[in-house]
Amino acid sequence: MIYDVVIVGAGVTGAFIARELSRYQLNVCLVDRAEDVAMGSSKANSGIVHAGYDPVPGSLKARFNVRGNQLMESVCRELDVPFKRTGSLVLAFDAEDMRKLQDIYERGLKNGVPDLEIWDATQVKKAEPAVADNVSGALYAPTGGIVCPYELTLGAAENAVENGVVLKLGCEIKSIEFKNGIFLLHGSGEVLEGRYVINAAGVYADRISAMVGDDSFSIIPRKGEYLLMDKNQGSLVNRVIFQTPSRMGKGVLVSPTVDGNLLVGPNAVDIQDKEDLSTSKEGLNQVKESALRSVPGIDMSEVITSFAGLRAKVVDGDDFIIGPSSKNDHFINVAGIDSPGLTSAPAIAEHVIDILGTLGLEMKEKESFNPVRRRPRRFTEMSEAEINERIRTNPAYGRIICRCEKVSEGEIIDCIRSTIGARTLDGVKRRVRAGMGRCQGGFCAPRVVEILSRELQIPMETVTKRGGDSRILMGKIKQQEFTDGSDV
Amino acid sequence: MKQADIVVIGGGPAGMAAALEARRRGVENILIIERDKELGGILQQCIHNGFGLHIFKEELTGPEYAWRFIEQIKKENIDYLLDTMVLSITPDKIVTAANSTEGLVRIKAGAIVLSMGCRERTRGSLNIPGTRPAGILTAGAAQRFVNMEGYMPGKKIVILGSGDIGMIMARRLTLEGAEVKMVCEIMPYTKGLIRNKVQCLDDFGIPLKLNCTVVEIHGKERLEGVTIAKVDEDRKPIPETMEYVECDTLLLSVGLIPENELSREAGIKIDPSTGGPFVSKTMETSIQGIFACGNVVHVHDLVDNVTLESYIAGRAAAEYVLGGKN
Questions:
Q1: CB–CB of B100 and A398 under 8 A?
Q2: Chain A contact for B235, CB < 8 A?
């Protein structure tokens, strides 16, 4: 099969491009080296839907951020992804910060961000009593919000697949040839053929681009470390709380999550290794200190986990790189998608469709396209009547496996059987939150491993945390042989 | 709505003892709600011996100790629901639970006994920096894998924390052929019982490193090793003492936390020093008629003490409901 378009990278950008393309009568393949979608930058980031006052006016970032923010509500409704327009605050702590806020405000106006306001300290404290007493004021952006980044990616990818996109996971592209107008993408195990290639490979976008001879940019991973706090800290703040930005980024934020936890982070450290997701003591301490500057009342003993994510930062550049490569105009780079990439993804996807149209790809709309994707209801989202009805038709919904997040066996089975089914312990965790709570899988991990083994019909020992060699178990305990030859 | 004189939340040793004592005091309609598929709680995975020396004057395994209570529960015809998860309790003692056969169940209780036990502290709460590979689990999760499911969590093992479950798992995994390289304890003393140190570590030649902790995790997919370091008087790692230890598994036995999410949501006052509810001499919480006992109140070393404490709670709950009726 020669695909019309092959998209390399099933992160949020690739997933939204795939979904946009699935509106048309095209053969599209979405390929990723990982065993699930959203396994790169899309899995570990702040989950913020930015208002759009940060990027430089006139930049791609400014344009797609504001447009993406506008689209987010309807996109999340279509894709059944939790999204909350909480609003956001950028805190100022002195006169210098207040001057910067004014600049940000002006920039926001230029970028077309609606309803920005500068608040004084009294207004800030009234709206957010947990913010530090020494706050001097804040920029309030009512359009800021929060979304679950991997739910968003999964939603877009599932909708794309439901509309005909072929998803290939666990297929790493090692080299690309271009012959007779067709790209041959040599992946692990197979060769994919495509007329157009979209490079949405995140921190690896420079390597994929180099495979067609385009080394016009390079991507450096900029690591950010986070701390996720127990739900008992989740209502400390109502909005996303930023600090006045510095050269290294937007600073550490304090934010509620759509699931009711509190997230603090990230710091920003440029590193070399594109696989390095380790956290450091210094980094985590830096995040803690900085977060406490905004919200001194955070109980840091309520941390339930810490993690790091990598931003795909362009070296010597500040904007997204989106467009046909100078080496081959059927190869389209969608690179350097760091913040506000998550917010921008739906808008970037629209733009990529325009580019493909301009390049001559025939776009005939598909009558059968269905923009709506539904995920199974979660136990915690259902009314009593719904719970009773659900348990009556499927008793597995009455067996709670994850105590902390109240996740039933039915939900776990459904997420393994869904369009892009969970294949790993972390895959289940991301989809239905089993193991995401305060005990971090202490009670439920053994049972989820068992369910995965049963549903996927694989031995317990081959169930992994996140694919590859991340096996949970290493064989059986000693087997006692009885004289009749049977095991115990 | 169903009615019960006493609803006991959790069918482990605490819940069973409280229910039995309440029955002895004459309470008829008692209901135990248990989330697992059998009564006994965490005792069912504690297949080692050492239980019951005080109560039964003999050494029993966990399941044996549990079994003696389960038999009495059955003999006394005390009702229990298995595979049933309590979702909420209210100050006016309405218990909402869910299971596969009945869906949502709502019970109006005369009194409630909280006996939900505790959970283990995790890597997240310790904030150990490094990567996030497979192969890091709590000692209790490992115990369930080995003793209940029959699987080995790993072959080369480092244990952080000298809690009892950690030391017991050091022995258990050694017996199953794993190499337990060491137990690291940040404090200058063993956290668990001395008899466990002797019987589970010393007797098997497993080194216990006091004043020592894990400062970094290595390995991308599966755990490949940990960096350990000695700590100074302030429990801060001393950089010069850092040492890499190759291992595929890190077990955490770094403390237990009473499980009081239900109690908190009901508005019961929690003692920050124990993590359990404030209780009176009769084990009554800050809400009248709601009692608590066992590890949900504070973490006990011995199950025998859990049983004794739970008798007090059971008696008080009985007096509360019988007094109300008279």
A1: yes
A2: no
Q: Which contacts of B192-197 are long-range, i.e. CB under 8 A and separated by 24 or more positions?
A: B192/B162, B192/B163, B192/B164, B192/B165, B192/B166, B192/B167, B192/B253, B192/B301, B193/B164, B193/B301, B195/B50, B196/B164, B196/B167, B196/B168, B197/B162, B197/B167
CATH topology of domain A1-83+145-218+315-375: FAD/NAD(P)-binding domain (3.50.50)
Tens-digit pLDDT profile for residues B27-80: 999 999 999 999 999 999 999 999 999 999 999 999 999 999 999 999 999 999
Q: Using CA atoms, how far apart are residues A161 and B297, in angstroms rounded to an integer?
A: 50
Same fold across B2-119+256-325 and B122-252: yes
Nearest Cα residue to A435 out of A411, A464, A396, A401: A401
Residue A477 DSSP one-character state: P
A330 in active site: no
- pLDDT tens, position by position, B97-109: 999 999 999 999 9
Strand partners, B292: B114
Which of A443, A471, A472 is opposite residue B119, by nearest beta carbon? A443
CA distance to A456, A477, B164, per residue, from A48 (Å): 34, 46, 43
Flag whether residue A279 sits within 8 Å of chain B, measured between CB atoms.
yes
CA distance A322 to A67: 16
Task: Answer whether A406 sits within 8 Å of B87, measured CB to CB.
Answer: yes
pLDDT at A481: 61
What SS3 state is found at B266?
coil
Range A88-142+221-271+278-311: architecture per CATH: 2-Layer Sandwich (3.30)
Confirm or reject CATH 3.40.50.300 for domain B2-119+256-325, answering yes or no: no
Q: What are the tens digits of pLDDT across the range A408-439?
A: 999 999 999 999 999 999 999 999 999 988 88
pLDDT for A442 equals 85
ipTM for the assembly: 0.93
Asked if B98 and A387 come within 8 Å (Cβ–Cβ), the reply is yes
Q: How confident is the model at residue A479 (pLDDT cuts 50, 70, 90)?
A: confident
Question: What pLDDT digit, counting tens, does each position of A196-211 carry?
Answer: 999 999 999 999 999 9
Give me the CATH topology for the region A379-462.
Arc Repressor Mutant, subunit A (1.10.10)
Residue A201 to residue A205: CA distance in whole angstroms: 4
Name the band, by pLDDT with cuts 50, 70 and 90, for residue A325.
very high
Q: How much of chain B is helix, strand and coil, in % rounded to 5? A: 30, 30, 40
Distance from B14 to chain A by nearest Cα, in Å? 19
Best of B1, B127, B265 to substitute, by most chain A Cβ atoms within 10 angstroms, is: B127
Does the beta-carbon distance from A471 to B148 stay under 8 Å?
A: no
CATH of domain B122-252: 3.50.50.60
Q: Tens digits of per-residue pLDDT, B188-240?
A: 999 999 999 999 999 999 999 999 999 999 999 999 999 999 999 999 999 99
Confidence of residue B313 (pLDDT cuts 50, 70, 90): very high
- The letter for the amino acid at A49 is V
Provide the whole-model pTM: 0.93
